[in-house]
Every structure is written in C-alpha cells, then in structure tokens.
C-alpha cells in the first residue's frame, strides 16, 4: 500500500526537524581536531570509504560545489589528515587519501558520535534500531535515485560506517 499524502508530509516535517536539530548539534559539539571545520568531516567519511578519490568525485558524492569541497580538502591536507597526489590514471588530476593521522582522527570522530547517538537511542530496542537504519538507507537510496533521474547527481560512493571500514581491513 502506498504512503498517503499526509503520511509523506509528516515524514518530511519530521526529517526537516531532525535535520535542523542535527545542524544545531553539529555547531554545539566540541571540535575533535582543532582547526578542522565540522562541515569537512563528511569529506573524511567518503575518502575513508573510497580509499583514493578525486575532488570532483567527492563533490558529486557530497552534493556540494567543487570549490567548497576543494577548500575543505585543502584545510584537511594542511591539518595533516589527507594527502594529495597525482591521479595515476590521469597525471593532470589530483586524488586525495587519508593519512594515518586522518584515520586516527576519523576513528575518534566516529567513536564520539557513536557514543552520543548511543545515548540518544538508549531506550530503543535493537530490532527497532536495525529497522530504522534499513529504512533510512532505503530513503537515502530513493533520494539519490531521484536526483540522478533529474540529472542532479551521479552514483555516489558510499559513506562507510566504522564497522564497514574494519571489515575492509580484515
């Protein structure tokens, strides 16, 4: 059975509220790495999942302007969290990858955020949490497919969880 218009609106308004609260929480959260803007953290998440990636691909994945992502990458390189190098397949282009320090900082970011969310979800049942994560991923996939169909995006690289990253290493 399809979702009703009222149910779709309720979901949209709920997500809008959560989005605004997450932005407020992001700005109130302590900085884990001095000099690194929390807005650049998603760059670290995507690079961790990709291994090595072009800045233009990062911008596409993050649905951001290339100039914005380029500034974020430059700050992360200056902070020693990312390395820039020539793209092996096209020496004119640059790729970025995590440094060892970047990996350590990313682990700290994800651990701290996971602990914070664990506290928020203290009353949730594990099965309900798993179902919510599944549905949230499905919603993200539907949004991404809709954007691609409109020509607004190309297939992104995935954001990876700590669990996904550790499984890659094993």
Automatic annotation (TrEMBL):
Record-linked SUPFAM superfamilies: Winged helix' DNA-binding domain
Pfam families (alphabetical): MarR_2
Region of interest (Disordered), residue spans: 149-170
Record InterPro entries: HTH_MarR-typ, MarR/SlyA-like, Tscrpt_reg_MarR-type_CS, WH-like_DNA-bd_sf, WH_DNA-bd_sf
Entry superkingdom: Bacteria
Record has DNA-binding as a keyword: yes
Keywords, sorted A to Z: DNA-binding, Transcription, Transcription regulation
Keyword flag Protein transport: no
PROSITE patterns attached to this UniProt entry: HTH_MARR_1, HTH_MARR_2
Domain HTH marR-type as annotated: residue spans: 8-138
Listed PANTHER family: MARR-FAMILY TRANSCRIPTIONAL REGULATOR (PTHR33164:SF57), TRANSCRIPTIONAL REGULATOR, MARR FAMILY (PTHR33164)
The protein's name: MarR family winged helix-turn-helix transcriptional regulator
Origin organism lineage: Bacteria, Bacillati, Actinomycetota, Actinomycetes, Micrococcales
